[in-house]
Amino acid sequence: MKPIPLRWLIVTPFVILALISGITMYLVSTVTISNIASSVGIQYIKEVEGRIYDRVKGFMAPLSDIVEINLNAFSNRPELVDNLVPLADRFYEQATPYNQMTFISMATVDGRYLASAQDPIKRGQHNIAANFINKPLTMEGYNYDPKHFIGPKIVDDGSFSYDPRTRPFYQDAIKANTVAWSNIHPYYGYPTLGVGLSAPIYNQKGELLGVTATSIALLELDKYLKSLELVNGAYLFLTEENGSLIASSEQSELFKTVDGVTSRVNLNNHSNSVFQLASHTLTAGSYKINVEGQEYLYYVRPITLEYDKKWLIGILIPSAYHKALLAGYTQSTVMITLVLFICIGLIGSLIAWYIGSPIQALNQAANAKDIKIIQRLPHPLSQIREINSLSQGLSSMADNLFDIMQDLEKKVAERTSVLQGEKDHLLEDALTDELTKLYNRRGFNQVFKQALKYAQQNHQQITFVLCDIDHFKRINDKFGHTVGDLALISVAMNLKSHARLTSDIVARYGGEEFTLVFINTDLPQVLDRLNDIREELKKNPVAKDQHVTMSFGVVHAEDALSISARELIEQADKKLYQAKNSGRDKIII
């Protein structure tokens, strides 16, 4: 059978698939259906958003209205501030029509405070709060009396020190020098948020008289959002511009208290991932967002309150809602798409089998890390000309590579043997003193580090000895450097003969200095060996009847873990210096 060119095998079926796709797209207009569905969703969102907008505006309106009324009244009639008691009647009447009103108050520059107050949760009963009735700056609660304005003290309410001039509502108004909003905050001891509006009051001379304020509980807004009947999977929220939640359709907290510290819940740290993603876009407009595979139509609208306060309404509905409304229009599209997918699947499977099988065999052989498997590939491997040619070329290359690798392995083995010998020789030269054949400074540092680590791990004794040939310069000056070298060699042999080859260390530390390290050896034994070294130096001349003496600095540690290498060397050096300066030919411990 004549081999088939690979390009024809690939091009022909995909031309057919492209033709099927073109006809399908011509028959249905997916984009048009999607646009219609989005319009339906936006229309639903705007209807819900309009209801929320009107509710929030109406809910918040009394706050600014009452502040403006009181601001004008007190500014034009400053004598009202002289006696706050009659204001209880005024504030009570202002608060009574509004179920959400928690405080309407007046605070004077001398610290007096009076307010109509209502429990933010158990609403329906407005009382009077004042801090000047029985004791200055002491807050107490009173029943409202239509005749005397301030009635009997409420027994259940405790008294506490209260200076309104230190409170945020007072300070914010003074700082702004105009009507100012307070930060939204949780009411102390109550599971609800509140917000206030305050204004400074000045007389005609511009003198500060005090601050009037109103405060409102936002619980009703949260309940309202939760009460709205929404499509399944929809979400509503009301936030400040920074994303801090004011109300939402979710049954979740709006603030948290951890270790006595209360913090607001923000969209970006909300437990709901939909709210978290919505926090990334808080600009007015409509958007599409995707949360864990679920698409939402997202709409944001600002609510502008009095005195430059702006809140945001956010509405998210799942795209499935409005797309389901047009399911009838998409049924034919689904069927045609299904047929298209079946065609693509069948053709793709056929191509994958026809092309993939021989290519898979080539891939397995190439990745087997064994040239012999490539050499055993069948010929021909496939009826596709290019694949068959590739198989033959790979087999030929494998044969050549097999021969090259055998020759290369032989050369590598030979070269490795030579390099290993050179490496061992160079390593020995690098670590050994050429004259004395002891460890040089570099070699000593290497073996000493290992020996100290071993002794520390096993809590063994260690003795570090730093020694020096006395008056070595005289030998060089008198007999020459050749004799000096013989002296160094003789001393090195003497030191080495008194050390254990398997555990002790002997090294030329530099010049005429040597070092010895004894592991797991008692100090008396070490001193015996050092004295033996001294005796041998006295008995045997190092060269030309020339005897030498040595000075020793010794540091001993019962447990090597208690001392470092640096401390051993520094202490031994000091003791050697002491031996040299106290007459030489001594052992200093």
Automatic annotation (TrEMBL):
Catalysed reaction(s) here are: 2 GTP = 3',3'-c-di-GMP + 2 diphosphate
Residues of the GGDEF domain:
460-589
Molecular function (GO) terms for this protein are: diguanylate cyclase activity
Pfam families in the cross-refs = GGDEF (PF00990), MCP-like_PDC_1 (PF22673)
Question: Which intervals of the chain form a coiled coil?
Answer: none
Q: Kindly give the Gene3D superfamilies that the UniProt entry links to this protein.
A: 3.30.70.270, 6.10.340.10, PAS domain (3.30.450.20)
Alphabetized SMART domains for the sequence = GGDEF
InterPro entries of this UniProt entry? Diguanylate_Cyclase (IPR050469), GGDEF_dom (IPR000160), Nucleotide_cyclase (IPR029787), Rev_trsase/Diguanyl_cyclase (IPR043128)
CDD domains attached here? GGDEF (cd01949)
Give me the segments passing through the membrane: 6-28, 333-355
Its EC number is 2.7.7.65
Alphabetic keyword roster: Membrane, Nucleotidyltransferase, Transferase, Transmembrane, Transmembrane helix
The UniProt entry, under PANTHER family, shows: DIGUANYLATE CYCLASE DGCM-RELATED, REGULATORY COMPONENTS OF SENSORY TRANSDUCTION SYSTEM
Q: What is this protein called?
A: diguanylate cyclase
Species per Swiss-Prot/TrEMBL record = Marinomonas phaeophyticola
Q: What is the lineage of its organism?
A: Bacteria, Pseudomonadati, Pseudomonadota, Gammaproteobacteria, Oceanospirillales
